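User: Earlier you gave me the apo prediction for this protein. Now I'd like the version with pyridoxal-5'-phosphate bound, so I can compare the two side by side. Same sequence as before, with the ligand SMILES added.
Assistant: Got it. Here's the input I'm using:
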Amino acid sequence: MEKLKKFVLQDNQIPTQWYNIQADMGVKPLPPLNPATKQPLRPEDLFPIFSEECSRQEFDQTNAWIDIPEEVVDMYRYYRATPLVRAYALEKALDTPAHIYFKNESTNPLGSHKINSALAQCYYCKHEGTTNVTTETGAGQWGAALSYAARVFGLEAAVYQVKISMEQKPYRSILMRTFGAQVTGSPSMSTRAGKDIITRDPMHTGSLGTAISEAIELATTTPHCKYTLGSVLNHVSLHQTVIGLEAEKQMEMAGEYPDTVIACFGGGSNFGGIAFPFMRHNIKDGAKTEYVAAEPSSCPKLTRGVFQYDFGDKAGYTPLLPMFTLGHGFKPANIHAGGLRYHGAGVIVSQLIKDGMMRAVDIPQLESFRAGLLFARTEGIVPAPESCHAIAATVREAVKCRENGRGKVILFNLSGHGLIDMTAYEQYLNGDLMDYSVSDDEIKNNVGNLPHIL
Ligand SMILES: *Cc1c(COP(=O)(O)O)cnc(C)c1O
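And here is the structure of the complex with pyridoxal-5'-phosphate:
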């Protein structure tokens, strides 16, 4: 029989609605709180910062299906549907009876899944009369996606990039500027928050915390300027469900259904994107698929954090979110998977973990690159350091299948390619990378300072 390797959808099979799992969850996520009053927030409270439509989507616990605006679907058509691929060569190398499929979100011009939400957020901003958007970025995948999406909808983009990342990984800031964005290393002298930080610590090399503070300040002090975020929030995961909705149709073409769905985990958007559409069949139709989030051992909020209200940023400017967290003061080690170096987890995933609907594994840095190399050498795609964590978790499952002699169907999300992260591979190949462990005390000290609300 002919082996089909790649499952491709036609243009008219691209999803026209996103799936909002909040509507179907048995236990709904708790509301975000105003940090001063500890009162639940309403969508209107977010209007000064985010686009109004994204603010409404954030709180929507009733509509399971949300129409994707036509102009966004038109832009999705440029690079969607993305391929679903059966990884025969990887299966063979692992000598596993498991069938391994991956959804390839690295094929768009920006190289990661982040574009799926960047286009939606910029569309809503434009539609509501916004002229400028701003955001923060670490390694730069989100900043690059936003810069391009802003250009598509005729918006000016200002990106605050963590200063140290900008110096260590110059290519993505050049990419952002190529798309016409204004890129500023954070902390900078262009905001009050930045000036305060530099005055206190002239050598500060920046963090996502400093960059978020500067971007929010710019959004709230500039007319017609909105802030955008690339992960963590519910509306971002909502936009990413195009991944899982396509994968569902493609698995049907392959004549299989996943027993295990795996994705790497930073704030949860690519995980939610591939997992939530399948999980609705666990909730509604008794499917028994299991879901695995793969986080780095150096930033283990899902496997070792606490479920508590915490801030989304270091400075404490954001609302309090009910989530698994290592504490907003936690400083993750400088691993190459920059997109996974975040102290907290999205509130939907946090609730799902609490309710036993999914589980998490933590992957040491060297194991992630070992898996990434195996994938590159078998499937010919260099995965992003973040995606390597999903591959490592997949390898673990496939090896279990080999050992117990029972096959199963594994689907993982390849969230991005690593072609702009080759220095990470160089360091791995030269033997210059290491594993980082986090002590129980370090975690206890950080979460000990959190407000005790739950
Ligand atoms: C940002 C990023 C991630 C992590 O973010 P999530 O919101 O958890 O998906 C993972 N992979 C890539 C390639 C990224 O750019």
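For your comparison, keep in mind: The chain has a mean pLDDT of 95.
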